[in-house]
Amino acid sequence: MNPTHALAAFLAGLDYRQLPPAVLDRGEELFLDWLGSALAGAGARPVPLFERYAQRMGPASGPAKILANGHGTSAYFAALVNGASSHLVEQDDLHNSSVLHPGTVVFSAALAAAQDLNSTGKDLLLAAVAGYEAGIRIGEFMGRSHYRIFHTTATVGTLAAAVAVGKLMGFDQAQFIHLLGNAGTQAAGVWEFLRDAADSKQLHSAKAAADGVLAAYMTADGLAGARNILEGDQGLAAGMSTDAQPGRLCDRLGERWALLETSFKFHASCRHTHPAADALLRLMQREGLRHEQVAQVVAHVHQGAIDVLGRVDVPTTVHQAKFSMGTVLGLIAVHGSAQLVEFRDLALSDPNVAAFRQKVRMQFDPQVDAAYPARWLGRVTVTSTDGRTLAAAIDDPKGDPNNTLSRPELEAKFQRLLAFSGARTVEQGQALIARVWQLRDAQALGDLV
Amino acid sequence: MNPTHALAAFLAGLDYRQLPPAVLDRGEELFLDWLGSALAGAGARPVPLFERYAQRMGPASGPAKILANGHGTSAYFAALVNGASSHLVEQDDLHNSSVLHPGTVVFSAALAAAQDLNSTGKDLLLAAVAGYEAGIRIGEFMGRSHYRIFHTTATVGTLAAAVAVGKLMGFDQAQFIHLLGNAGTQAAGVWEFLRDAADSKQLHSAKAAADGVLAAYMTADGLAGARNILEGDQGLAAGMSTDAQPGRLCDRLGERWALLETSFKFHASCRHTHPAADALLRLMQREGLRHEQVAQVVAHVHQGAIDVLGRVDVPTTVHQAKFSMGTVLGLIAVHGSAQLVEFRDLALSDPNVAAFRQKVRMQFDPQVDAAYPARWLGRVTVTSTDGRTLAAAIDDPKGDPNNTLSRPELEAKFQRLLAFSGARTVEQGQALIARVWQLRDAQALGDLV
């Protein structure tokens, strides 16, 4: 059996009773983290543009909920708007070796479809696991060459979202094969927007979630797809990768739970900045160094960081600031924190941050690059104003599986996310947290949030 | 000014009064041809799947019309369903050197948006010209390497559709730049489905038209896109082409009317089979040869024909039969015609066609390949059962700009398309023809069809 068909067989056979307790626990934690991100994006550009588009093109009401404004609509438009808002503040989860943000695409599609289909909490968790396990393996399969040009969360995200919805619908192996074909041939999204402060990152997660819904609903109705969309001679890897590894598609299915390897984001910036941010924070705390005492910082990074971050020198928007290594390290050095509030209030306007930004440069590091993307190593070298050369290293950025966030830390992050947009009060946040920690017992999801 | 920005400036400045009469005439002819294709697809799989999806996810009514069933919906869903149905019977127009089917994406998006926006016939024609001129040049820019893996009508079609809608909305240069970014980063669709009798070709044209609508409406509302989505370091050409030619993007803008180079399809098969079909027909008529007298046929073809057609040996569906060189030449040899009716009634079941199919093979021809895609040369060599070797050549397949269809021929084709699906009577077809020949004077398009 070829790897794509083996993956489809696994997805079809995956049973809730098969899921280890740790997977269910982490599934709920990832859902809470996604929910916080989706609410944190409420009201912020470009989310209202997606809300207005849904209003113009979609039905006036419906069973699926747009989290940012509470409106009911069809599953397609709820997935679209929630996919946009949950990726906006750059606090959603990330899987390292696939470089995929699974939550923003999987939960945006799965919750919308679950509300439409009257699914239970157990159904949603099982669907999410299917989406994570498939999406992560497909991302790993597409390889590093893919990520150089393509935004994996956009391309592979379409397949991950589709798989989650297909699982909600109880697809068999043949349907999952069609589904991968139908979702895969819609896979799109390139990095070019980054240098322009464009809104495409939200468009990407929105479209991946929504097109995943489209692929699943049309497959359920009988739309036939390519049988080897991933590995075929004219498939995704042939067109968009030069280092695809078919073996990754069915890597230890049912034994390795890739969902457990997913990282929570701690800093509110692009994940490529986190290892250096953690290393710099450790160094400055260890040495008792203040930002004025730093003459120069070299962040030793993998090539992917240079590809994604390299082109923003002086950010002009908060979103660009999250992709500016100098700005992120500036916030860490000057304020000890690079959370949403620091980005909004200080990243563009604080002269100390701007001054620190000028001291930072990135340098390709072969050792860091070789470990990537399985591990995201943080290495910085600092030259102090009194002439000392100092170095620090971290091997597991905060939020990584080996250094994960506890439930209390996740609850605190969730409340920070809600407070940032003002979408919910602290009390409402507490109620949401309580409901998510009982997700597996929920009989209906229409009023969950 | 870089080529993308020059193209955007041209699109913004394009004025109806600037369009030569021949462009307006051909625009109406292409619209009629598209309309016939959209109606010919009514009722046939997978079009009803798209209709049901629009019903499930879209509004219950709206100003834009689904041609296949007459329902009103929003512009997004009308573009989606009409994009599917107008590409189904493989009779829609094709531009040679870009290998783009412009009509199915441009008119599906533009008519839906024009009905939503209360545009006039002049608006629609101007929008279509913008979509054709941009889409064709972007297709040429992406080059032959792109078409090897990617279905240009799906990828570039998204941009062509978006440009047409942007022109309806009166975009300025800056908006067209954003629009290209927003549409381009949604560009998707690979050829892998062809070997599987999958429904992806209709999914591609449907999604290109619909995502073009999405890109335009959201750009109008302010969604910012990448400024160099085509030529940028992480743009479409970087990710999906190895032979992109930036100069093609603004090739003789305002002087060369690429729309006039678009071919009408005569045979109801994949366009890559047409040159050989015309050459074989000429040879058999010239020699007075009957199909039983043919021992072997070699079709001398360009590489693209082998890439697209090569993998279907014995078709199992009518759609696959249209991509089977042996079947197409079999219909020509046995029945003298390869129209929709022959495909439906004879392509899979006639033993004479099946026998002839076995006699056909394709052979790469350097001269034919060198001329492609600017010209699609037809070259066949036939070995007769009495041992003669016969050859024939045509340089302009029927329907090409140098051998185009007259208005009476287009009207006859239109009526054949309507009769095929039974979507309209002959009298209704006559009334539609009359209205389309007065498209430039139409004040409203809501009830045009």
Automatic annotation (TrEMBL), chains A, B:
<dbReference type="InterPro" id="IPR005656">
    <property type="entry name" value="MmgE_PrpD"/>
</dbReference>
<feature type="domain" description="MmgE/PrpD C-terminal">
    <location>
        <begin position="267"/>
        <end position="438"/>
    </location>
</feature>
<dbReference type="Pfam" id="PF19305">
    <property type="entry name" value="MmgE_PrpD_C"/>
</dbReference>
<feature type="domain" description="MmgE/PrpD N-terminal">
    <location>
        <begin position="6"/>
        <end position="246"/>
    </location>
</feature>
<dbReference type="InterPro" id="IPR045336">
    <property type="entry name" value="MmgE_PrpD_N"/>
</dbReference>
<comment type="similarity">
    <text>Belongs to the PrpD family.</text>
</comment>
<protein>
    <submittedName>
        <fullName>MmgE/PrpD family protein</fullName>
    </submittedName>
</protein>
<dbReference type="InterPro" id="IPR036148">
    <property type="entry name" value="MmgE/PrpD_sf"/>
</dbReference>
<dbReference type="Pfam" id="PF03972">
    <property type="entry name" value="MmgE_PrpD_N"/>
</dbReference>
<dbReference type="InterPro" id="IPR045337">
    <property type="entry name" value="MmgE_PrpD_C"/>
</dbReference>
<dbReference type="InterPro" id="IPR042188">
    <property type="entry name" value="MmgE/PrpD_sf_2"/>
</dbReference>
<dbReference type="InterPro" id="IPR042183">
    <property type="entry name" value="MmgE/PrpD_sf_1"/>
</dbReference>
